[in-house]
Amino acid sequence: MHFFRQAASVxxxxxxxxxxxxxxxxxxxxxxxxxxxxxxxxxxIGVNGALPIPPVFATKGDTLVIxxxxxxxxxxxxxxxxxxQNGTSxxxxxxxxxxxxxxxxxxxxxxxxxxxAGTFWLHGHDHHQNSDGLRTPLIVRERRxxxxxxxxxxxxxxxxxxFEFADRLKDTLDPTKSFPPxxxxxYALFNxxxxxxxxxFKPGKTYxxxxxxxxxxxxxxFNLPGHQMRxxxxxxxxxxxxxxxxxxxxxxxxxxxxxxxxxxDSHNYHYNATLYAGFVPKIEDKNPRYYQGLIxxxxxxxxxxxxxxxxxxxxxxxxxxxxxxxxPLPVDRQIELTIGGSLFTTGQILDVINNITYAxxxxxxxxxxxxxxxxxxxxxSLYGPQTHAIVLRHLESVELTVNSxxxxxxxxxxxxxxxxxxxxxxxxxxxxxxxxxSPEFNAPMQRDTIVVPVNSYVKLxxxxxxxxxxxxxxxxxxxxxxxxxxxxVEAPDVLRQRQQVPDSMLELCRAQGxxxxxxxxxxxxxxxxxxxxxxxxxxRNGPALPxxx
Length: 549
Ligand SMILES: *[C@@H]1O[C@H](CO)[C@@H](O)[C@H](O)[C@H]1NC(C)=O
Ligand SMILES: *[C@@H]1O[C@H](CO)[C@@H](O)[C@H](O)[C@H]1NC(C)=O
Ligand SMILES: *[C@@H]1O[C@H](CO)[C@@H](O)[C@H](O)[C@H]1NC(C)=O
Ligand SMILES: *[C@@H]1O[C@H](CO)[C@@H](O)[C@H](O)[C@H]1NC(C)=O
Ligand SMILES: *[C@@H]1O[C@H](CO)[C@@H](O)[C@H](O)[C@H]1NC(C)=O
Ligand SMILES: *[C@@H]1O[C@H](CO)[C@@H](O)[C@H](O)[C@H]1NC(C)=O
Ligand SMILES: [Cu+2]
What we know:
The protein has six helices and 31 strands. By secondary structure, the chain is mostly beta strands. The longest helix has 9 residues, at 165-173. One 2-acetamido-2-deoxy-beta-D-glucopyranose is lined by residues 428-429, 432. One of its GO terms (molecular function) is copper ion binding. This is Ferroxidase fet3.
């Protein structure tokens, strides 16, 4: 059995008495050769010589101390997906956004507060190393959880490919190859293994099951036929319990559900997990892939036959209601973003946000924000033409409208914040949104990742109350690699007064000959020489290019 169970009851009993602790994590990141899914022996990225990486458990207010040694032959960095890094933007992790990657042979220690409770994950944020194994859940418990339960289980879901990410991206970007490249269908991993773990239930007890979707590309569906699931958390925000039959989760998303066991142990049950890609055709035994696990009340008990409920109800972001009761934010500023693919004169199809395909600048954007000085730090162009910087003013409330005229859903993730989900609907029918936050629910949920459905738009709101440099990007790693990202440079004036990058972090740049001051090209003032000219889109009159990945 490989369900990670920590004695939740002990933590619940003593948690409120204990004071903040330091949670030490020591990771030597290196290559491992192994066959994770039983079908594809390959090179992967693990820590301390192994995969899966043990999950990290902390309590809100603890200090996480993550010591990383890089034994790879390329740079690496670690991001705590879902933590806000309030006051420590430089610890956020994405390479060339908030830091230079940790060079091969070097070590670096991340140190920051577990600033809110919930279900998060730690993953590599340089060279898309999360796709090659560098990812594990990060559970931050409340000192007093608002929902009552007897015990908890953690279930992480991953898609696992036969080929290394770099090879898949190379094929995708090669203009001489067919686009998109022929799909290679991944297998699912559960808590890092190819088999489904058994959930042991005791009659009458209530369990919290935390489900973390650490997938790179593929969606997961999860349900427990014969049991009711009540969603109580999404991406670190508590919700009012909401009864659902199934979870449909995009890459990066997390949920906690409460499940109350039946009063007797007369039967065992099955649970279902399905790995699928809705954007490629169905192929038997490949897409979707169906997995079944056991809910065991008593060893050897007969399996209770179940049928799918009529009117099967999936969890729905917009219908969930935040337990915090916070009303929707006012809107000071509206930002409209259109995401999708575009053909370039290089023959490549790249992904764009408002026609810009993201590429890393010559120095980390945070270093530019801290060194350009006023008023230059307000000039978005100076961060580099492909950094796609959007400068936010301190404390303004932003409404982002994300339009996706695409045949693929995109899980968009914002660093440094959780956004309120206000509305979504079809692009063809904006006057009639499919869902809109309604006073009936009176408190929109906040999440850090949202799946923007096909040919749809979503409206998201957040307040710029966390000075820093925050990436907004698609969490399908291949799309991030194709350029679907932009950078919010939030309150550079306040940032300069409040935050100073530790010297050990600047050292990471110096070791690689990367400058730590200047604009996106690493130069002073307006001089952007040294940055390549952005690639040029092929413009067509008439009908738009067919939507692409
Ligand atoms: C996990 O994320 C992948 C990729 O976005 C998505 O296809 C899948 O449905 C998600 N699974 C769950 C259970 O959320
Ligand atoms: C669970 O999976 C089994 C086998 O794949 C399928 O027959 C059944 O309909 C599924 N049940 C639900 C509720 O999805
Ligand atoms: C993107 O380019 C198209 C022309 O191809 C133009 O119509 C559109 O307004 C541009 N979008 C933005 C946000 O600049
Ligand atoms: C727009 O949505 C409304 C409500 O769902 C529907 O009645 C109407 O037919 C839709 N119009 C179009 C053009 O899709
Ligand atoms: C960051 O901290 C400030 C000051 O405590 C607080 O007002 C703000 O809401 C925090 N923002 C986030 C995103 O945590
Ligand atoms: C912002 O920087 C760009 C790029 O150097 C420059 O062309 C532009 O004039 C600057 N804008 C302002 C208002 O200084
Ligand atoms: Cu995407």
